[in-house]
Structures are given as structure tokens and as C-alpha cells.
Amino acid sequence: MVAPLPDDQRVVITGVGVAAPNGNSLAEFRESLLVGRSGVVPYEIRYFGATVAGVCHFDDLRYQTRKDLRRGTRAGSISIYCSREAIADAGLDWPNVDKSRVGVYVGVTEHGNVETENEIYLLKGYDYDTRFWSHHHNPRTVANNPAGEVSLNLGITGPHYTVGAACAAGNAGLIQGVQMLRLSEVDLALAGGVSESIHTFGIFASFKSQGALATHEDPAKASRPFDLHRNGIVVAEGGCMYVLERFSDARARGARIYGEVAGYAINSDATDFVMPNADRQAECMEQALRRAGLSPQEVDIVSTHATGTSSGDVQECVALRRVFADCPRTHFNNAKSFIGHAMGAAGALELCGNLPAFSDGVCHPTINVDELDPECALEGLVINQPRELGRVRCILNNSFGMLGINSVVIVTKV
Q: Domain ends where: 252, 272, 297?
């Protein structure tokens, strides 16, 4: 039994900012998840050629000038858009917020590849004469760039940094924000994850060389976790940033609360560069549940990580069966089937798509499952159509990454 936390140690979500391939706000994203609207489209990138990808279409001039966009990065632009939208959504009196007590924690899979590829491509036109190398390259490629661009845009003087955690990074950024609030290092956290991955040809080429890049004659059906004929990952860009506050502060200002971060865990497989370990994934979920003081039977929705690879989906299902062996109320879904794999943003985006279930009681589905892989059959797997659950009080969000990093976040209704 876990003792209840005091209100100044409870951390809640009061604002959400979203840039997804199928929605530029939480409302738009949620609607797409309920009506089956995919954000995966035909895409072409130099050297690699034609493929498919999850492409965002947010207004990048809403909070930045054209000069800002030329000087900065796509990841920075996504981070700024999502952070600004989250602040507005939280109803904060931003001009009067003490910016020295605000922290920015952005999960990333990688950063700098896009800018380096771009510079080398442009340099080719000057016979590789490095006198023409951009003086913006260093600030564009430092690992803290996306979080730093947010701090510059918003005048935040508190701590900012990125959390490199492969495809577990969206959850890891959120967890970092929770921890910094509990340590009283900050009074407000902007936390989540971003991805600019579709702008680097290297990621497409590498997944293809692994035999892990999805193909389909219909781009909208290319991302199909759990389907027997799935054939890999659809690369996506996107982002989701949250405003996190202590429950005592949020209640004092009368804020709307999306949910409470009740538990979390991060662990490592320590077994392989890319092959997942079901035992370690299960242990990560179990640790998060213990921290939250919850039993598996109390979880209403599990947002799965499943990317659409043949082995990855199966291994996660093995872990899920171990943890949720006797949980008739628990339902499972997957957002990558709609948008592809948004890498560092995946965990944060996939969690937010489920948060409205606390209000409407609906579990969004996994789409594109034409023939369920028997090895991925889960009791409670919601396929192709939303399911009315009636009451939703607990969401568990899985997010796993290369080099064997696993992250789990649990959010409960307040």
C-alpha cells in the first residue's frame, strides 16, 4: 500500500499543446483518433526517394517569424508551437509567471542529423569548401536545441534541456518534469517530446536496411501494428508538450486538470541494440503500478508502444499478457496506426490522445488491423472502431526505445 502524497507533491496536467500529422490541437487529434483519420501520406526525401510518412501541417508562423524559422530547427519550431499552445490551453497568466521558476524538458530520439545532412548537401554546391558552412550549425545541432529554442521564444530563465531516450523520450521528458516539480526545483514545467525525424534521409535508409520500414499501396494503411501482414515502421514528425503543476498550485488558481501523473518508471533491457525484452518491459509496467499504488485491474486503457514491426509487437504483447493476465476491464489501443512512429514525440503524443477518455469514456481504436496476428491477440484490444467504456479513471502509457530503454507513465483522473 502506497501512502497518499501531500498535495504539493502531486503533479497534474493542466495544459496540452499538440502538433500531430492528423491534428494541430488536442481536440483535432482526438477527433481524428475517433473517426479513423490517418495522418500518413506519400512522402519523398532526397537520396532515398518515395516513401510514406506522418507529416505535420501546423502554422509555424503563429509564434515565430520567418527569420526565426531560417535560423532555428524544425524540432525547435515544433517545440515552440506545442509549448505556446499548452500555455494558452492551461489558462496561465503568462506575463506574470516567474520565468525563473519554469523548466523546459523535451524528450528527443536524436537531434542534429537533419541540420548536418542539410549543410553537407548545400556544401556540395560549393565543392565542399567549408568556408560556406553555416555559422548557425552549432546552435542548431547541440542536443539542448529544441528546449533552448523554447526558452528563447518564451523568455524562460529556469532550467532547460532535452532528454535523450530514443523512442521512450516522450514519456521521459514528462517524467523529468514531474521529478523537478517534486524536488521544488521549478514551480511550472513544460514537458513532453518532439520529433523532426522525417527530415533526415538517414533514418529511412537505416530502417529499410534493417527490413523495418513499412510499405503499402495505400499510405493511410501503411502503419498497422498487430496486423498479421504488418511490415514495419512509418516514420513521423510531431510533438506534444504539457503544462505540469503541483496539484496544490493548480487548485489554488482554479485550473482545469486533465489528470494526475500517478506513477512512472524507466528501466533498461541490457540485452540488445534493437531487439526488445518482454521481461524488462513487464517489469517497467509493474514498477510504475507499484509507484502509483495501483493494481493492474484498476487500469482502464493501456496505450501500447507497438510500432508495426514483426517482433516488437509480439514482444510487447507477451509483456502485456504477463502484467494484465486477469484484467477484464483493461482495454488496449495504439495511436501509431494513425500517425506512424513519431520517435521522441511518440510517448507524449500517444498519451494525450487518450486523456479525453476521462471525460467521454471512449477508448480510441487501433486502425488498419485487417487480420489480427494470433500472437498479438489481447483480451480487450480495441480494433478499428472506438469502444464505449462508460468510466475511465486510469491510463497506462507504454513507450520503448532502441538500446533497450523502457518508459511507462500512468495518469489517473482527479
A: 252
Whole-model pTM: value is 0.97
Task: Judge if 211 and 87 occupy the same domain.
Answer: yes
The total domain count for the chain is: 2
Domain contains 257: no
Residue with cell 532528454: 163
Which domain-ending residue is among 205, 224, 252? 252
Cα–Cα distance measured from residue 268 to residue 137, given in angstroms and rounded to the nearest whole number: 33
User: One digit per residue, pLDDT tens: the chain, 414 residues?
Assistant: 678 899 999 999 999 999 999 999 999 999 999 999 999 999 999 999 999 999 999 999 999 999 999 999 999 999 999 999 999 999 999 999 999 999 999 999 999 999 999 999 999 999 999 999 999 999 999 999 999 999 999 999 999 999 999 999 999 999 999 999 999 999 999 999 999 999 999 999 999 999 999 999 999 999 999 999 999 999 999 999 999 999 999 999 999 999 999 999 999 999 999 999 999 999 999 999 999 999 999 999 999 999 999 999 999 999 999 999 999 999 999 999 999 999 999 999 999 999 999 999 999 999 999 999 999 999 999 999 999 999 999 999 999 999 999 999 999 999
6 part of a folded domain: no
- Residues 298 and 240 both lie in one domain: no
> Considering the domain boundaries, does residue 323 fall inside one?
yes
SS3 breakdown of the chain: % helix, strand, coil, rounded to 5?
40, 25, 35
Which CATH number covers residue 277? 3.40.47.10
Q: Are 331 and 403 part of one and the same domain?
A: yes
Say whether both 275 and 242 belong to one domain. no
Separation CA 242–CA 83 (nearest Å): 7
Same domain, 269 and 355: yes
The CA distances from residue 133 to 14, 122, 202, 272, 280, in Å, are 43, 8, 20, 37, 44
Q: Is residue 3 part of a domain?
A: no
Chain position carrying cell 549543410: 119
CB atoms within 10 A of CB 272: 11
Q: Are residues 230 and 270 in the same domain?
A: no
The DSSP code sequence of 105-144 is EEEES--SHHHHHHHHHHHHTTTT-GGGS-TTHHHHHSTT
Where in the sequence is the domain holding 294, given as residue range(s)?
A: 263-412
Of 187, 200, 115, 185, residue with least CA distance to 149: 115
For residues 278-298, one letter each, b for 16 or more C-beta atoms within 10 angstroms of the residue's C-beta and e for the rest, the string is bebbbbbbbbbbeebebebeb
The span from the CA of 47 to the CA of 282, in Å, is 40
